[in-house]
Specification:
With 88 residues, this protein is α+β, with helices and mostly antiparallel strands. It has a single domain, classed as Alpha-Beta Plaits. 42% of the residues lie in helices and 25% in strands. The chain contains 3 helices and 4 strands, in the order αβαββαβ. The chain has a 4-stranded antiparallel sheet, covered by helices on one side. β2 and β3 form a beta hairpin.
Length: 88
């Protein structure tokens, strides 16, 4: 099997993408606080889909999938605003 230069570039890009996707942390938050969480994330200028994403949790909760680079800042802001957060 011969690897061409173009195919090698594609493989490297795909692996880098996979590594960056694995650097996400999941937080479980009550559904009634979703509006406050969205406001905090907007205040920190984070982009939906790139830095964070919302998912569905069990019962009246939702999952906040967050990039690990911003985990400390976001957790600090959530705690300051008295939002109950659990690790998922």
């Amino acid at each position: 099997m011969k690897l061409t230069k173009q195919r090698l570039k594609e493989i490297i890009k795909e692996e880098i993408r996979n590594l960056s996707e694995a650097k996400m942390v999941q937080l479980q938050i009550k559904e009634i606080e979703k509006k406050k969480v969205k406001k905090i994330l907007d205040k920190l200028r984070l982009k939906m889909g790139k830095h964070y994403d919302f998912g569905v949790g069990k019962g009246s909760t939702f999952i906040l999938e967050l990039d690990t680079k911003f985990e400390d800042k976001v957790l600090e802001m959530l705690i300051n605003n008295r939002i109950n957060v659990q690790g998922a």
